[in-house]
Amino acid sequence: YGDLQGKTVIVTGASSGIGKAIALRFGKEKANVVMTYNSNPDPMEEMIAEIKETGGQAVAVQANVSQEEDIRKLISTAHEHFGALHVMVNNAGIENEVPSEKLSLDDWKKVIDVNLTGAFLGSREAISYMLEHGIEGSVINMSSVHEVIPWPHFVHYAASKGGVKLMTETLALEFAPKGIRVNNIGPGAIYTPINQEKFDDPESRKSVEAMIPMGYIGKPEQIASVAAWLASSESSYVTGITLFADGGMTKY
Ligand code: NAD
Asked: Ligand 1, atom 20: nearest CA belongs to which residue?
């Protein structure tokens, strides 16, 4: 998608998994990439170098997406380094499986704070910036197949992603007249650090694969290509959708 060249993109939760693949993909598109890491800065220098090698530019910022001041710092970093913000990818997320009757208020709040409040703050601040600077940008939120598929022991996670679904649809309606598009990606089962322990266990891997019509667990790069499309003008008439990249899982 040639038109991402020179565009500025923020990717939250870029130090691993899907976020890392998205940041590297935008690097290949020769974009300016502002990446966040939460606590472990180890992979960032390597990623910055890789993005430069492929023709993009990159900077890494420590940020907790559920903190307003961190999100503001992120937007100002994009502005200071690259003078604009065209694409915001609210990717950071957490999950853990807990039977609902044992789920502590603390665990409930943590998941809602990162997955839903984090996506809201990232969307709000990015949209404010785009409005202020007259940019017809693209906001991409990382939802999940669990925005439509309920799942035992995932009540907090499913609630957070269900919230992201309607938040995105509402923002899409509100800012369509300004040319700002807001969409979700709904990954199915993707092999990343969030779930690799589960997927490395042959039994649970088999049970997950049985739910995927295409028969295999996806790769982060297969989500990154969807993010690149939603960011580019190739999707210029698309807003308010969840694009499921799930090997057909939601159609079972
Ligand atoms: P991951 O654990 O590799 O990546 C999550 C990233 O978010 C990490 O880099 C982590 O440091 C960051 N993060 C966590 N809390 C944060 C916070 N408070 N502030 C800033 N960053 C924070 O997992 P992943 O699979 O790459 O997940 C990325 C997104 O994709 C998540 O939103 C997840 O819910 C979603 N998702 C993943 C799958 C899957 O099967 N892997 C499926 C559906 C949706």
From this structure: 64
Contact 8/31 with Cβ under 8 angstroms? Answer: yes
CA angle 104, 18, 160 (to 5 degrees): 30
DSSP helix, strand, coil percent of the chain (3-state; round to 5): 50, 15, 35
CA 209 / ligand 1 centre spacing (Å): 21
Q: Is 175 left (phi over 0), alpha (psi -120 to 50) or beta?
A: alpha
Question: Coil, strand or helix: which one is 134?
Answer: coil
Q: Above 0.90 for ipTM, yes or no? A: yes
18 CB near ligand 1 (under 6 Å): yes
Select which of 1, 37, 129, 157 is catalytic: 157
Q: For the chain, list the domains and their CATH numbers.
A: 2-244 (3.40.50.720)
Q: What is the pLDDT of residues 193-250, one digit of tens each?
A: 999 999 999 999 999 999 999 999 999 999 999 999 999 999 999 999 999 999 999 9
